[in-house]
Every structure is written in C-alpha cells, then in structure tokens.
Design the sequence.
C-alpha cells in the first residue's frame, strides 16, 4: 500500500518473498511538472545459495538383469512385479528333463570308464608278472651260458623276451593313465551336466525387488551369445540415485559432496534431499549441447520414489550465511541521466581500513579457526601492508588513494594467507579454505545506486561474489547494511 507524504512522496510496500521494505520516493524535476519515483530495497544480511538446476531419471543404486544361461521351455514363474527376493530365491524354472538325462548319461559314462580302468590295471599287473618271469629266465640262461651248459642263442632269446615284457609294461601303464584321464573327463562332464541341471532353477543373485518380468510359463528361451533378460531386480530401494545431466557451463560449479534437493511429478508438494556422490568425466553431446552426468544419491523413505521417475534437481554448489546481499535488480538499475547522480560516501559495508578485520572474522567463523591460526593470518596481512606501504603500492583496500592495483593486492594477500594457514589447517578446514578461495577468486566489481537523504541517487562502487535467483553477495565496497539500494525508477506526472 502506498502513502504520499507532503512534498516528498514515500511509498512502503511489503515484499513477501524477502520480508524487506520497499521505499518509493517522488523527486520533482526542474520544471515541477514531473518527478521520478525510486523503488528501493535495503541491503540486508542473510543466506545466498548458488543453485544449478537440472533433471534426470531416478534409478536404483544397483540394478541387476537376470537371464537364463540355458535354452529351454520355462516351466514355472515363481515371482512377479514388486516381489521381494533374497539371494538364492528361485525366480523361475526351466524344464529339467533333458538336463537330468545328461546327468544320468554322464554318470553311466563314468562307470564305464571305471570298468575300463580296472581292466587296464589288471593288464598292467599281468605284464609285470610276465616281466618278472622273463627277468628270471634271463638270469638263469646267463648262468647256464657261463657254464657252457646252454647255447648262446637261448640266452639271446630270453633277453629279447625280457625287453618285450618291459615294453608291454610301458604300454599297460599308458593305458591305465589314459583310463584314469577318461574318468576325470567323464567326471568333468558330470559336473557340467549337474551345473546345467541346477541352472534350470533361475535364482536371484541379490537381495532386492523385482521391477521387471519378461517371461511367462510355457515360453521358450534361447541362450546364445547373450543370456536373454527375464527379470530385472533393483537392490535396496530404500536408497536411490539420480542420473542428472548438467550443462558444461554449470558443471564446473558442481563437486562431490554438494547438497541437492529435488521434486518429482508424483509428489509436487514434497521436496526430497540428497547429495552429489559423483561427477562423471565422460561427456554426452546431443544437438551440439554438451552435458555431463552427475550422480545424486538420496534416501527413499517409504519407498515413494520409483525407478524411472523424472527428478527436477537443484544442486547447491555454494552457500553463504549471514553475508551482506542486495537484490539482483539493483545491479541492473542505471539513472537516466548522470547529472542527477551524486557520489556517495566511501567506507560503508566492508570498505576502508576495517576490511581486513572483517575478512579475518569471516575466515574465523567459516573455518572455525583457532587463535593460533587467526594470529598467523593477521601477521601475514600486517606484513603485506607494511611491505606495500613502504613501496608506495598501498591500494584502496588499506586506505590508499585511487588508481592503485587492488586486484594485485588481493592476489598477493590470498597467496600470503594460504602460505600462513596451509601448514596449520586440518583436513576439514582445508576443504572449507579452498571453497572460500574459489569464492574470492570469483569476485567482480559492480556499481549500485543508493537513495541519498536529499532524494538524489548516489553511486556506490562495490565488489560482488556469489549470486542466486534473488540476491547477490556483496563482499566489499561502499555499501553498508540497511542502505536503501535503488532497484528501479519511473517517471510520474505531478
């Protein structure tokens, strides 16, 4: 509701979304027949979240396709969609008659091979007996020949018979080994036949829920180079993952551990929470648009989320709490004429000599620095100030005059802080420091306009950082909390 006051017309309008007051000021021009109405929103402290919006399908954490390694006719199907199964549970059975016959045949082959082995072993024993007799005969004929009681030809015949007996033993031993190998081969065939018979019972490999069934009793399945998919089982639907596609322009802001929230069309009024667990490096290009797959895991309480649902995801890539912020509209506002603009005062909201102290306080809060760590940062900053002051390079950051290279100073300062803190940071603090550093590197200059007490816009130079769909972070410059920042203006007739 607007309310006009005497010569200046101030309108207060509540902004429901941000809970901020909006100030309208009517400033007459030189002719007196027109004025300018300025809408302002005060700079406030609050939270800013950088959001990366995307979407992707809901998946189970682990999904297993179950098929048949055998060809045959399906005899029974024991599960259906949504059936809960345990490892080893029978899902379906294939007609086992053929495979049972193969097992029986393999057993018979083993029995035949064992009988053949027995014959070969008997032949070996016989050959050993023949050899023994031949060796005895050779010894006897040698004795007779030495005494010249037997002709030499008889001795030679006995030696030849002994050699033949020895060869017969070698053959018999080889035949025994072959028979034993045949038995081993037949046992392996029995094992394979037994395995195939067991595979007629198609079992669940995991603990999960059947989400797909593509087979019915009486159906014939043919297993060739690839096992046909009969069932699909989702493991542990109490947790799910989302395969979100993030544009290449946004993927740099996403990292493992980022918080995420999402909705699905089935529950439009409910928001689910998750966390980024993986940023895949492989790119996907479609119609010259490059995207990267980001995996988000989330709890599925009550199993309300089903595989295949489309999730509308918001990934929180960065968060600032209690930071000075302005409306995004303020960065787009420019007065129509520069002649009406006055220069605002310096030093508000993080500018001036106190900026270093503010930075130290922020580091202390965000990273929970110890007193020793704070002292190290303060010493590093004081040393850098002294060095630059001595060399007449002191920038505006520490109260120097215009035209100084503040960017160079910030770079040096960042390097000094990192050198001072690096050896003192814990593992947890190190990650927070890197996020803070990245945020500082993303800082950029900007200009806003503040409504002065005289009703004339005043230019303020600031530095801005993180931004969301409503607010932009102010990390330094000539702006203080509650300053009335102009977001738009319009001409009115008196």
Sequence:
């Amino acid at each position: 509701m607007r309310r006009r006051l005497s010569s200046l017309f101030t309108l207060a309008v509540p902004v429901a979304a941000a809970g901020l007051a909006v100030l309208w000021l009517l400033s007459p021009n030189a002719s007196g027949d027109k004025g300018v109405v300025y809408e302002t929103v005060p700079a406030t402290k609050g939270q800013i979240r950088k959001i990366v919006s995307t979407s992707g399908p809901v998946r189970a954490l682990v999904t297993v396709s179950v098929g048949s390694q055998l060809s045959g006719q399906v005899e029974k199907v024991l599960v259906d969609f949504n059936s809960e199964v345990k490892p080893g549970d029978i899902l379906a059975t294939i007609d086992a008659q053929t495979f049972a016959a193969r097992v029986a045949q393999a057993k018979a082959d083993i029995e035949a091979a064992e009988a053949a082995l027995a014959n070969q072993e008997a032949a070996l024993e016989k050959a050993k007996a023949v050899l023994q007799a031949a060796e005895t005969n050779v010894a006897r004929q040698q004795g007779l020949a030495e005494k010249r009681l037997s002709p030499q030809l008889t001795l030679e015949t006995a030696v030849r018979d002994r050699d033949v007996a020895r060869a017969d033993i070698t053959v018999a031993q080889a035949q025994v080994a072959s028979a034993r190998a045949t038995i081993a081969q037949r046992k392996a065939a029995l094992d394979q036949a037994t395995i195939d018979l067991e595979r007629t019972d198609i079992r669940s490999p995991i603990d999960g829920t059947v989400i797909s069934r593509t087979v019915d009793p009486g159906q014939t399945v043919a297993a060739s180079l690839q096992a046909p998919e009969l069932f699909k089982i989702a493991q542990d639907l109490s947790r799910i993952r989302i395969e979100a596609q993030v544009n290449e322009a946004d993927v740099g802001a996403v990292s493992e551990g980022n918080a995420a929230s999402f909705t699905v069309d089935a529950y439009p009024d409910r928001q689910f929470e998750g966390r980024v667990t993986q940023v895949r490096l492989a790119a996907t290009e479609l119609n010259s648009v490059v995207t990267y797959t980001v995996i988000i895991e989330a709890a599925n309480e009550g199993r309300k989320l089903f595989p295949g649902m489309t999730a509308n995801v918001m990934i929180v890539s960065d968060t600032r709490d209690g930071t000075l912020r302005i409306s995004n509209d303020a960065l787009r506002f420019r007065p129509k004429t520069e002649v009406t603009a006055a220069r605002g005062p310096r030093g508000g909201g993080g500018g001036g000599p106190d900026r270093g102290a503010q930075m130290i306080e922020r580091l202390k809060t965000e990273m929970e620095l110890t007193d020793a760590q704070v002292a190290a940062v303060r010493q590093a900053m004081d040393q850098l100030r002294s060095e630059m002051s001595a060399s007449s390079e002191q920038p505006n950051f520490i109260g120097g005059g215009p035209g100084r290279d503040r960017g160079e100073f910030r770079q040096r300062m960042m390097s000094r802080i990192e050198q001072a803190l690096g050896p003192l940071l814990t593992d947890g603090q190190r990650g927070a420091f890197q996020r803070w550093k990245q945020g500082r590197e993303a800082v950029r200059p900007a200009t806003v306009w503040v409504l002065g007490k005289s009703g004339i816009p005043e230019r303020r130079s600031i530095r801005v950082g993180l931004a969301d769909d409503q607010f932009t972070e102010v990390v330094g410059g000539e702006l203080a909390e509650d300053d009335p920042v102009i977001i738009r203006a319009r001409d009115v007739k008196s």
About this structure: Residues 97-146 form the longest helix (50 residues).
